[in-house]
C-alpha cells in the first residue's frame, strides 16, 4: 500500500498500462488531493491484489464509474460505498462531480461517512471513517484480533474437546431416545395387561408372552449379528484397556445390534429385572473408538495407541454419566472399574465429556416438559437439620458389614452358577445351538414368578425399576404406618403411595422385603446367564436398597420414638438406610467406592455423606478380601486374557522374584546362526518374537526379531542362496530385515510386585530377562498369572 502523491485535483483521460500478459489495461481515475473538510487529514490509498490487478480505493471523477476489484469488472463502487449519495439537487452525479473537483459542500458531509479511508501512516487496511473516528480504535482492533485468535483455536478441527463434546452430546441423545421408546413399550404392556379382562389365563399370557418374545428377539438378533453384543461388556473393556487386542469388539457394526438388543431387554420391564449401565458403557466406548478413527483421518496423523486409550476412558465415563445424569461418579466409577492405573492427563477429558453428556441428557427432559428444571433422577425428602444421630453411625457401619457378607455370597453363587451353565453338557449345548430358546425359557421362568396375582404380589413386581428406588427411598416408616392399620392392596399401583406395593397383611413389611431379597437373589443370578445385552448394576443397586430398607424398618420398630442423644430425640429415617445399603452393596459387588457419590448424585442428598461412605468402606473391606469383583469374576469364567491383582500383600509375597517363575526355555537367535538353523527354528516354533543375541557364545541380548518380518525376509532371500556358500542371520539382517531395540528388560532379582506394576502400567505382554546382559529367560502373562495364583492359593506341599 503506497500513498498517492498529493497534487491539484485534475481529470485526465485513462491511458493504457501494460498488463501482466502484455494486454493493455486502463489506469483508474484517481484524485491527487482531497481537501474536504469532512475528510480532515485522511489520504486515499490504492492496494494491490497481487496478480489480479489494482483494487480501486480512489475517488473517481464524474466522467466514469470505475469498478472495484481491478480488471475484469467487479462491484459498482458508487452503488456499494455511496448508496445514499445524492446531491442537493437529488442527482448522484452532482455529488460525484463535487467529490472529483473538491467542491463538496456542507450538505454532503453526512454522506462522507460511507466513504472508505485510511489513517495516514497506517498499515493500509481499509476502515470506515466512522470507525476511524470511534473511541479507542487500537483497543477495538486488539479485541477483534483476540476474538479471531480464540475462534481459530476453539474451532480448529481435530482438537480433543471438539470430539469429546460430540461424544457426550451424541450419547445423551441416544440414551434419551432409548428411554423414550422403552417407556412407550412398557406403557403398552401395562395397558394390555390392564385391559385384557379378568380371565387369569389371558392375563397370565399377556404378562409372560410379552417379555418372552422381547428377550428371545433380543438374544437372537444381537447374537446373529455379532457374538460380542451379549452381556454387560465391561469385562471385555477392562481387557482391552489392559493392552489386549480383541478383534472386532469395538467395531461400529456392533453398535446397532447392541442398541436394538438392549432396548428389547429393557422393554421387558421388571419381569427380567436387568439394567442399562454396562451395555451403554460399551456403546459409548464404541462411539469413542469410532470418533477417534475419524479424528485420526481428519487431521491426518498416524494411529496413536495412547490417544485411542484416552478416548476409550472418556467414553466409559460418558456411558455412566448419560445413564444416571451423574458426571462425577461416572468418571470415578469408570476409573475404578476400567483401569488399574489412570493417567491424570485423561482426567479433564473424562469430566468434560461426562458433563456435556449429563447436562444434555437432563436438558432433554426439560425440553420435553418432563421436568420443570434440571434436577436429580430420584427425589428424596430426608430431614436436613439433623439427618442422623451420632449413635446411628454404628448401625450404618453394621449395615455395610452385612452388605459385604451378602455380596460375597452373591459373587460366589453367581460365578459358580455361570461356570456350571458353561460346563454342563445340556446347557452348553443349548447355548451353542439355540441361544434364543435358552433365553425364552429363562424369561418364561422369571415372568411366571413375577405374575402379580401369584407370587409377584409379594415382591412388588408391578413396580418398574425406577419406582422400586422411589419407594425404597421413602423417608416414612412403613412398619409404623401399618402397625395399627391394614390398608388394602390396591388394584393398580398408586403413584403417590407406591409403598403399598410392599405391604401384604399376611406377610407384613418385613416378610415382603425379606422374600423380595431371597427371590431376587437367585432370579438375578439366573438372568445374568441369558446371552443378550443387559446391565447388572441397577438390579444390584436395588437389592442393596432393599437390604438397607429392611434394617431401617427394624430400627424404626426397635426405636419407635427415635434415638435420644444429648436430650434430643431424633426419629429413624428408613430411607437413609436404603440409600446407604444401595451404595454399600453395589460398591461391594463391583469393588468400587464411587457408588457412594453416585447415590448422592442420584438423589441430590449429601447430608448422609459420612455414614454412607463408612458403610461403603466397610462393605468393600469384606468383599475385596474374600471375592473378586463381579466383572473380574466374569473375566475368570470367560477366560479372558486379563492380568489379576496381587491380593496377598503379605511381607512374604515381596520375596518372590522373577527368578522363581520366569520361563527359562527360550529360543534365541544369534547373528552368527546359519540360515538353515534359523529356518528350522522358525518352522518349529510359533512364538511372535525372538530375542536376538550378539553371538551364540556370548548370548548378549541386542534386539528383538518379529517372526512375521523374519519370515518375509527369509522368503525374499531364498532365491539368492548359492549352494555351498555359508550364509548366516547377519546376512538377512544386513539385507533389511528390521529389528526392534530392547527398551525394557527384567532382572532375575526383580520382585513379583515390580514386574506386575510394569505389566499393568505399560500394558505389556512379554518381557525378556537378562543377567549381566545375557538373555536367560522371559516373563509373559502366563507366568505372571501362575505366580499370582500360587500366592493367593498356594499349592499343597507334596
TrEMBL record:
One BP annotation, GO: renal absorption
Protein origin, superkingdom: Eukaryota
**Topology relative to the membrane:** Multi-pass membrane protein
Q: Where is this gene product found?
A: Basolateral cell membrane; Membrane
TM ranges are: 161-181, 201-221, 272-291, 312-335, 393-413, 437-460, 507-527, 534-552, 572-599, 606-623
GO molecular-function annotation terms? metal ion binding; voltage-gated chloride channel activity
Q: Is Calcium a UniProt keyword of this protein?
A: yes
Positions of the CBS domain: 662-720
GO terms under cellular component = basolateral plasma membrane; chloride channel complex
What keyword terms does UniProt attach to this protein? Calcium, CBS domain, Cell membrane, Chloride, Chloride channel, Ion channel, Ion transport, Membrane, Metal-binding, Repeat, Transmembrane, Transmembrane helix, Transport
How this chain assembles, per its entry, is:
Homodimer. Interacts with BSND.
As for family, the record states:
Belongs to the chloride channel (TC 2.A.49) family.
The protein here is known as Chloride channel protein
Q: Which organism is this protein's natural source? A: Microcebus murinus (Gray mouse lemur)
Which taxonomic lineage does the organism of this UniProt entry have?
Answer: Eukaryota, Metazoa, Chordata, Craniata, Vertebrata
Q: Which gene encodes it?
A: CLCNKA
Amino acid at each position: 500500500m503506497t500513498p498517492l502523491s498529493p497534487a491539484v485535483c485534475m481529470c485526465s483521460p485513462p491511458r493504457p498500462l501494460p498488463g501482466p500478459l502484455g494486454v493493455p489495461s486502463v489506469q483508474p481515475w484517481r484524485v491527487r488531493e482531497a481537501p474536504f473538510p469532512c475528510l480532515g487529514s485522511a489520504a486515499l490509498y490504492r492496494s494491490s491484489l497481487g496478480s489480479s490487478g489494482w483494487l480501486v480505493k480512489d475517488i473517481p471523477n464524474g466522467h466514469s464509474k470505475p469498478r472495484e476489484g481491478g480488471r475484469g469488472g467487479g462491484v459498482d463502487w458508487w452503488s456499494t460505498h455511496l448508496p445514499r449519495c445524492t446531491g442537493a439537487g437529488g442527482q448522484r452525479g452532482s455529488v460525484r462531480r463535487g467529490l472529483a473537483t473538491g467542491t463538496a459542500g456542507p450538505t454532503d458531509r453526512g454522506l462522507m461517512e460511507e466513504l472508505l479511508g485510511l489513517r495516514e501512516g497506517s498499515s493500509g487496511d481499509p476502515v470506515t471513517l466512522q470507525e476511524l473516528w470511534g473511541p479507542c480504535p487500537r483497543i477495538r482492533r486488539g479485541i477483534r484480533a483476540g476474538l479471531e485468535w480464540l475462534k481459530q483455536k476453539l474451532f480448529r478441527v481435530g482438537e480433543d474437546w471438539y470430539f469429546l463434546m460430540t461424544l457426550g452430546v451424541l450419547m445423551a441423545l441416544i440414551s434419551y431416545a432409548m428411554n423414550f421408546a422403552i417407556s412407550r413399550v412398557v406403557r403398552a404392556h401395562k395397558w394390555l395387561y390392564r385391559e385384557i379382562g379378568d380371565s387369569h389365563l389371558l392375563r397370565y399370557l399377556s404378562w409372560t408372552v410379552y417379555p418372552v418374545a422381547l428377550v428371545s428377539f433380543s438374544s437372537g438378533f444381537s447374537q446373529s449379528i455379532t457374538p460380542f453384543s451379549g452381556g454387560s461388556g465391561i469385562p471385555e473393556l477392562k481387557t482391552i484397556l489392559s493392552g489386549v487386542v480383541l478383534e472386532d469388539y469395538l467395531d461400529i457394526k456392533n453398535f446397532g445390534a447392541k442398541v436394538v438388543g438392549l432396548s428389547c431387554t429393557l422393554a421387558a420391564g421388571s419381569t427380567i429385572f436387568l439394567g442399562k449401565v454396562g451395555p451403554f458403557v460399551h456403546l459409548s466406548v464404541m462411539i469413542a473408538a469410532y470418533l477417534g478413527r475419524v479424528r485420526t483421518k481428519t487431521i491426518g496423523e498416524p494411529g496413536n495407541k495412547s490417544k485411542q486409550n484416552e478416548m476409550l476412558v472418556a467414553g466409559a465415563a460418558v456411558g455412566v454419566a448419560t445413564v444416571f445424569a451423574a458426571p462425577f461418579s461416572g468418571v470415578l466409577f469408570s476409573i475404578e472399574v476400567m483401569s488399574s492405573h489412570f493417567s491424570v492427563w485423561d482426567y479433564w477429558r473424562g469430566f468434560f465429556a461426562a458433563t456435556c453428556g449429563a447436562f444434555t441428557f437432563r436438558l432433554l427432559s426439560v425440553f420435553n416438559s418432563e421436568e420443570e428444571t434440571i434436577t436429580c433422577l430420584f427425589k428424596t425428602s430426608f430431614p436436613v437439620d439433623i439427618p442422623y444421630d451420632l449413635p446411628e453411625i454404628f448401625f450404618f457401619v453394621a449395615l455395610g458389614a452385612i452388605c459385604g457378607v451378602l455380596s460375597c455370597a452373591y459373587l460366589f453363587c453367581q460365578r459358580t452358577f455361570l461356570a456350571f451353565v458353561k460346563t454342563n453338557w445340556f446347557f452348553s449345548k443349548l447355548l451353542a445351538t439355540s441361544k434364543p430358546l435358552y433365553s425364552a425359557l429363562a424369561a418364561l421362568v422369571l415372568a411366571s414368578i413375577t405374575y402379580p396375582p401369584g407370587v409377584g404380589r409379594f415382591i412388588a413386581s408391578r413396580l418398574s425399576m425406577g419406582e422400586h428406588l422411589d419407594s425404597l427411598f421413602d423417608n416414612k416408616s412403613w412398619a409404623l404406618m401399618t402397625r395399627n392399620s391394614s390398608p388394602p392392596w390396591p388394584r393398580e399401583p398408586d403413584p403417590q403411595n407406591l409403598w403399598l406395593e410392599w405391604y401384604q397383611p399376611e406377610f407384613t413389611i418385613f416378610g415382603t422385603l425379606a422374600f423380595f431379597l431371597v427371590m431376587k437373589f437367585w432370579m438375578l443370578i439366573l438372568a445374568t446367564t441369558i446371552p443378550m445385552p443387559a446391565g447388572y448394576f441397577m438390579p444390584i443397586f436395588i437389592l442393596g436398597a432393599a437390604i438397607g430398607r429392611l434394617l431401617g424398618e427394624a430400627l424404626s420398630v426397635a426405636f419407635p420414638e427415635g434415638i435420644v442423644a444429648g436430650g434430643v430425640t431424633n426419629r429413624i429415617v428408613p430411607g437413609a438406610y436404603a440409600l446407604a445399603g444401595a451404595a454399600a452393596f453395589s460398591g461391594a459387588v463391583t469393588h468400587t467406592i464411587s457408588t457412594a457419590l453416585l447415590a448422592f448424585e442420584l438423589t441430590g442428598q449429601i447430608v448422609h455423606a459420612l455414614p454412607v461412605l463408612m458403610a461403603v468402606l466397610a462393605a468393600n473391606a469384606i468383599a475385596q478380601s474374600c471375592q473378586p469383583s463381579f466383572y473380574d469374576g466374569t473375566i475368570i469364567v470367560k477366560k479372558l486374557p486379563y492380568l489379576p491383582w496381587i491380593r496377598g500383600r503379605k511381607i512374604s509375597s515381596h520375596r518372590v522374584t522373577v527368578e522363581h517363575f520366569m520361563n527359562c526355555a527360550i529360543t534365541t537367535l544369534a547373528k552368527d546362526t546359519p540360515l538353515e538353523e534359523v529356518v528350522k527354528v522358525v518352522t518349529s516354533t510359533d512364538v511372535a518374537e525372538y530375542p536376538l543375541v550378539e553371538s551364540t557364545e556370548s548370548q548378549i541380548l541386542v534386539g528383538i526379531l518379529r517372526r512375521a518380518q523374519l519370515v518375509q525376509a527369509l522368503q525374499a532371500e531364498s532365491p539368492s542362496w548359492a549352494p555351498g556358500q555359508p550364509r548366516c542371520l547377519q546376512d538377512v539382517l544386513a539385507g533389511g530385515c528390521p529389528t526392534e531395540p530392547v527398551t525394557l528388560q527384567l532382572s532375575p532379582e526383580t520382585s513379583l510386585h515390580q514386574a506386575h506394576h510394569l505389566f499393568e502400567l505399560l500394558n505389556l505382554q512379554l518381557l525378556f530377562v537378562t543377567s549381566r546382559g545375557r538373555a536367560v529367560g522371559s516373563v509373559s502373562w502366563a507366568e505372571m498369572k501362575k505366580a499370582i495364583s500360587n500366592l493367593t492359593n498356594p499349592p499343597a506341599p507334596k
